[in-house]
Amino acid sequence: MKIPILLNNGMVNIMIHFCEVIVKKYSNIPIFIPELACPHQCVFCNQTKISGTHSIPQPKEIRHIVAQYLETIPANRIINIAFFGGSFTGIPVDLQEQYLKEAFWFVKNGKVSGIRLSTRPDYINETILELLKKYGVTTIELGAQSTSRNVLNQSGRGHTPEDIQNASRMIRTYGFELGLQMMIGLPEDSYEQSIQTANDIVSFGASNTRIYPAIIVKGTALEKRYREGKYIPLSLEQAVEWTKGLVRIFERNNVSVIRMGLHPSDELVSGKSLIDGPFHPAFKEMVMTKIWEEIIHAKLKENTSGKIRISVSDKQMHYAIGYKQANKTRLQSRGYAVQFTGNHTFSRYQIDVCDN
Predict the structure, then answer these.
(1) 267 DSSP 8-state letter
(2) How many helices (H) and strands (E) does the chain have?
(3) Are residues 107 and 133 located together in one domain of the fold?
(4) Fewest 10 Å CB contacts: which of 200, 269, 272, 345?
(5) Residues 11 and 183: beta-carbon distance below 8 Å
(6) What does the buried/exposed string (b/e) look like for 294-324 if buried means 16 or more CB atoms within 10 Å of the residue's CB?
(7) Rounded distance, CA 195 to CA 213, Å?
């Protein structure tokens, strides 16, 4: 669709056609390499149980895996091959190069836009970054988890806050997009410390982040502490509240939150690997429900009528209504007869409340 708009700059009339904007979505083709390169055993980590992955793909399998995924991804998507689940840059360099060569074939042939990977902050150096640049890597995510020295030590991370800061600086200097992952509720963590970690992630220049609540998985050191009464996980309600505050910090600073909560693998959803902790398949929806509860509450201070219509972005309406209609039910319990409507012209958190 083209909409002609006539502009007059005082000297000449200029006809401009604004074309319809097509917003492209992102798709990752995940390749999990659990614990392949990590000599550390963090207290929370059992990647096989968390990711549900039991076998490690060989480099020669990468083309087949990616080709299968490409058949299922809709058109007009920005596609990245994503090496997740382990510390990719800790793999022997020759093996890294084998994986990257196979993935880079799809970049060279225009099948995907780029490659992203996750690794540890202490597994970044200039030699590594030169290799990643050579093979089309666009985004590097660091498992920071926390910027508290005490939390890192208690969690067996094996790196320091300075490692996070230095690696972040190098990644950005080399022109990569930086992602920093954080985990809440680790041993010795607090809400105040999680806020500090979020602020540090912003200051280190991250473009995106993931927020994972710490959970207790079978076969981890955290399970042992839990059974000995030395560790208590966050409740689901606490994790949702903490994450809500963190999301608001990131949004104010234009850091994209690309995940809240762990991926709902079969191992976690079935409970086979989950001992305790704030895991829920709808964790993001719960967090967004709380964010919208605050927005609606603030807006209703201006409106005392009992019969109301709440208009929000159509893309946010299910969050505004709430997980299991929690926000709508809460309003009804306060005496409001409420109707929610979606508006495709509204921005993300735009809201309008009027008498109905």
Answers:
(1) H
(2) 13, 14
(3) yes
(4) 345
(5) no
(6) ebbeeebeeeeeeebebbbbeebbbbbbbbe
(7) 14
Question: Cα separation of 290 and 260, whole Å?
Answer: 13
Examine the domain organization and report whether 236 and 330 are in the same domain: no
Q: Are the C-beta atoms of 353 and 336 separated by less than 8 Å?
A: no
The phi, psi pair for 128, rounded to 5°, reads -60, -45
For 111-157, write each residue's pLDDT tens digit.
999 999 999 999 999 999 999 999 999 999 999 999 999 999 999 89
Instruction: Tell me, yes or no, whether 39 and 169 share the same domain.
Output: yes
CA angle 100, 102, 104 (to 5 degrees): 65
Residue keyed to tokens 């208590």: 232
Residue 6 lies in a domain: no
Indicate the residue among 264, 281, 298 that finishes a domain. 281
Whether the Cβ atoms of residue 31 and residue 69 lie closer than 8 Å to each other: no
Number of domains observed in the structure of the chain? 2
> In whole angstroms, what is the distance from residue 279 CA to residue 51 CA?
13
Instruction: Tell me, yes or no, whether 118 lies in a domain.
Output: yes
pLDDT digits (tens, 9 = 90+) for 264-313: 888 888 888 899 999 999 999 999 999 999 999 999 976 666 899 999 99
Q: What long-range pairs does 92-95 form, CB within 8 A, spacing at least 24?
A: 93/131, 95/59
Pairing relationship of beta strands 274-276 and 216-217 according to DSSP bridges:
antiparallel
Q: Are residues 130 and 273 in the same domain?
A: yes
Domain C-terminal end among 281, 315, 346 = 281
Give the orientation angle of helix 161-173 with respect to helix 126-134, to 10 degrees.
40
78 and 197 both lie in a single domain:
yes
How open is the CA angle 48-49-55, to the nearest 5 degrees?
A: 30
253 alpha-carbon distance from chain centroid: 15
What CATH number is given to the structural domain containing 150?
3.20.20.70
Q: What are the structure tokens assigned to 82, written together?
A: 């994503």
Establish if 8 belongs to a structural domain: no
Q: Are 106 and 112 in contact (CB under 8 A)?
A: yes
Coil, helix or strand at residue 225:
helix
Alpha-carbon span 277 to 283, nearest angstrom: 12
Look up the domain containing 47 and give its range: 25-281
| 197 and 251 both lie in a single domain | yes
